[in-house]
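Notebook, p. 212. Picked up where the previous page left off. The plan for this session was modest: take the two constructs that came back from the sequencing core last week, fold each one, and keep the raw output in the notebook itself so nobody has to go hunting through shared drives later. Recording the first one now, exactly as returned: residue sequence, then the structure token string.
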Amino acid sequence: MKKLLTISLIAATAFAAEGYKVLTKIKIGGSGGWDYVAMDSANRRLYASHGTIVEVVDPDAGKVVGQITGLHGVHGIAIAADLNKGFITNGQSGSVTVFDLKTLAKTGEPAAGKNPDAVCYEPKTHRVFAMNHTGNDSTAIDAKTLEIVATFPLGPAPEFCAVDGAGKVYVNLEGSSEVLEIDAAKPGVTRRISLAPGEGPSGLAIDVKNKKLFSVCADSKTMAVIDIPSWKVIATPPIGAGPDAAGFDPGTGLSFSSNGDGTLTIVKAVNGKYDTVDTVTTVRGARTMTVDDKTHKVYLLAAEYGPTPEAKDGKKGRPPVLPDSFGVLVVGK
């Protein structure tokens, strides 16, 4: 009986709420939609996509400290701290804007493919990979010279990407519900895996130390956990509805899914098995996020919405974003 009680207490502790909650909101304001958000933990800067602008936020001071303007339908943002460069995908112009991390000045704009979405910097090869969502391929760019290395096929609708820091890039394929492994030096696809029963992947995060990938799947409302060495899906814990980003904090071992239904799902390994351990209430539409591995806070882009208009011609109306309500939700303990 005593042994059983001990086991029960351990299980209860493991599945106890992690203590995360919305701490504050950093106001940005303005108008326009948003997509990715990226954290530069070393330089203490948060980069938020915002229509034709990237808003540069000091997360510690809780305020906007700069802007990168004159962009063309911003999607993804990647940081190459070792080169003092940032990279922004422009979905409308099919290009990648390069900027100086210190001055925020634009220093180049190499071409990508059709509707580049996610972008990742691979530090071993010093290459940037733009994932061309409509083009179904990836453009590899030399981060030092900004010359195009190659454009190579991936498959239907590439989404988020992640890197292991040792020459491999991983990317979700939303259209075929797969994850691909890319050899950055080649560059080209070396492995692919079906996420079944996961469907409709968008966000992707990586645990480099334990060699795991976390792919959030909107259609199945699951997080597919992939063991990289065996290249198998080892768990599919449930998440909220409408996810669009994933994150992993190496300091806490927690994985996150930001969901459009106004929740943040937290997943962790419990007794060797990945399970959903907490759900944090955020706000409706807070679908993209990034993790600060220094403070262990999670940052989500969000705005406030007006009432949903009546359906017209059989089509459901979408609630309008209220003016000047855009900002960054800060989630932590």
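Okay, moving on. Second construct, recorded in the same format:
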Amino acid sequence: MTTRSSTTMRALRPDAAGDPADLRETVVDVPAIGADDVLVEVRAASINRSDMLACRGVLPGPFPRILGRDFAGVVIEGPESLVGTSVWGSGGGDLGLDRDGTYAQYLAVSRDALTALPQGLSFVDAAASALAFFTAAYALRLTGQIESGSTFIATGAAGGVGGAAAAIARGDGAHVVAVVRNDDEAALVREAGFDTVVIDGPDIATDIAEAVGTDGAAAAVDAVGGKLAGHLLRAMGQNGRYVLLSTPPDEVPSEVDLLDLYRKSLVVKGLYTGRVSAADAAEMLRELTPRIEDGSLPPVRVDRTYPLAEAATAFGTLGPNARGRAVLLPHGSESI
């Protein structure tokens, strides 16, 4: 059984908003746990774009605080029935945003924010996948039930959220149209078994329309936004459901044909995970466990792992050319 021998821990706890390149490991007290909490020894914690935005102060939250939204590890304090259990989870608007997060050796978290680690899923893969998986699952819930044989569009399909949304929809029997940025990403999604791939370019609107056919798409999860959103809405079929997960803040707004939206009775929703709780995330991850264990929902690709002391370098890997997630190992590589 894992135990701790110190009252302090290493963590990434900036005093104020700033550049992730300036992040430095610091020593803080191990958090105390409440009656409904457990203490998790964090074995792995992923770096996401939202963590960078939180560090910069773009996403609201108090400072000083420990950053980080994803985690995978082992319960070391709490109810006897949970101690020794391998768990994973992700914060919505709580962990790493309005309270201390996961970039630390230990995490105090509510029991309802935990999900047992699926069989065959490593700590590193779990941490890399948690936020992406629960976001995709929540988005699919917002689109409503996807009927077998219907057409589903996933943008950013080579990324974590878009790839997960595509995999979940395929598991539900949908014909998936995977939208990617370039040939390299197209090769990745084809390798993952998606045959209908649309590459962004000057003819993107026509290419998407041809891919979905005359009936249009029944649902779409858009992890890219921007000008692409208007093209997707025009490609939706009657009573289509579109969910937007992100959009560039400085891009020219998308043009939306309101008459087309009205005549098709389209449903358009936005999903901001900052309004979702870690308990909500845990519920989504529990629902996905069978898909993870049977291999139909593969983990998000990992580029490499880093110790906490190299967090600034790890954050530097974020960007459009990232080859996968960067994952922090608060206890070092020997812990995984």
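Notes on construct two before I forget. The two ends are 15 Å apart (CA to CA).
Flagging for discussion at group meeting.
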